[in-house]
């Protein structure tokens, strides 16, 4: 897809509006800095971005790299829905599409089209890959819990805002909603952009994916992206001793507690 083709895609104005409001709210949060607000944002960053998106939507649901009891799976789906990155069916469908066509022309955030496009530019347009979501989500599309979160992730954010306002006023809303969403968004997007451009490749993955340590720090282990693309069904992304993977540590804890089973890992010579 050339730049000219990108410009012909229909603009997704609702995304433009939402992302603009989130960033304006985050700016206001930093103008009204508080340590309590920052702590709240970091805790919710881990709950929604770490447990929800990274562990839940990505490793558990998109790749089925391990199994947990259904109630716990739904809890992780709930946490991910509070990250407001679309609904779980939409997100999982697009992620599976990305893995099938990684860095090819039909990949909706193909890194060959530049950092801006793969980071967030693609979301400003109505990309054709959205039409293929039903093809990739047959295992979850008819689940009423998934459908509920797919339909109501935005109202859930409003409810969370009211709860935070009741607890800590506008400062908690600015930090717990807007600043936290801004941080979760860009951390997630760095996996689509930075880890396809910066770092090292230790495995053949037939795309541009790379292992980037600083993205791994920001995303609870998702920065070991070349490892992931080489062994996409592995619950563990950091394969070397220096590749710290906090999400793998969490999965290991769940396995020790008897809450995670059928944990998939690469072969011994990986």
UniProtKB/TrEMBL annotation:
Give one GO biological process term: fatty acid biosynthetic process
Gene Ontology annotations for the cellular component aspect, listed alphabetically: membrane
| Co-factor requirement | Fe(2+)
Keywords linked to the UniProt accession: Fatty acid biosynthesis, Fatty acid metabolism, Iron, Lipid biosynthesis, Lipid metabolism, Membrane, Oxidoreductase, Transmembrane, Transmembrane helix
**UniProt GO molecular function:** oxidoreductase activity, acting on paired donors, with oxidation of a pair of donors resulting in the reduction of molecular oxygen to two molecules of water
Xref: InterPro entries: Acyl-CoA_DS, FA_desaturase_dom
For the keyword NAD, the answer is no
Fatty acid desaturase domain segment(s): 34-246
| Localisation per UniProt entry | Membrane
Q: Which Pfam families match?
A: FA_desaturase
Keyword Transmembrane helix in annotation: yes
TM stretches of this protein: 12-31, 37-60, 72-92, 152-178
Q: How does it sit in the membrane?
A: Multi-pass membrane protein
Question: What family does this chain come from, according to its entry?
Answer: Belongs to the fatty acid desaturase type 2 family.
Q: Which PANTHER family match?
A: ACYL-COA DESATURASE (PTHR11351), DESATURASE 1, ISOFORM A-RELATED (PTHR11351:SF31)
Q: What is this protein called?
A: Fatty acid desaturase
């Amino acid at each position: 897809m050339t730049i000219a083709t990108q410009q012909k895609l229909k603009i997704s104005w609702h995304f433009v509006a939402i992302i603009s409001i989130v960033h304006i709210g985050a700016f206001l949060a930093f103008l009204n800095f508080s340590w309590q607000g920052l702590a709240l944002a970091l805790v919710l960053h881990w709950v929604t971005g770490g447990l929800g998106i990274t562990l839940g939507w990505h490793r558990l649901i998109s790749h089925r790299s391990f199994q947990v009891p259904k109630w716990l799976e739904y809890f992780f789906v709930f946490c991910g829905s509070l990250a407001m990155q679309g609904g779980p069916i939409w997100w999982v469908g697009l992620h599976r599409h990305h893995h099938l066509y990684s860095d090819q022309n039909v990949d909706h955030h193909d890194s060959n089209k530049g950092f801006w496009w793969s980071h967030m530019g693609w979301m400003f347009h109505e990309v054709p890959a959205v039409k293929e979501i039903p093809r990739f989500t047959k295992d979850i599309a008819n689940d009423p819990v998934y459908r509920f979160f797919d339909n109501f992730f935005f109202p859930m954010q409003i409810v969370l805002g009211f709860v935070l306002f009741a607890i800590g006023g506008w400062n908690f809303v600015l930090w717990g909603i807007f600043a936290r969403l801004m941080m979760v968004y860009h951390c997630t997007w760095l996996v689509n952009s930075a880890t396809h451009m910066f770092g090292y490749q230790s495995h053949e993955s037939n795309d541009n994916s790379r292992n980037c340590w600083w993205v791994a720090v920001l995303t609870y282990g998702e920065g070991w992206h070349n490892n992931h693309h080489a062994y996409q069904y592995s619950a563990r992304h950091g394969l070397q001793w220096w590749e710290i993977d906090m999400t793998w540590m969490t999965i290991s804890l769940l396995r020790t507690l008897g809450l995670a089973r059928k944990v998939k890992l690469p072969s011994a010579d990986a």
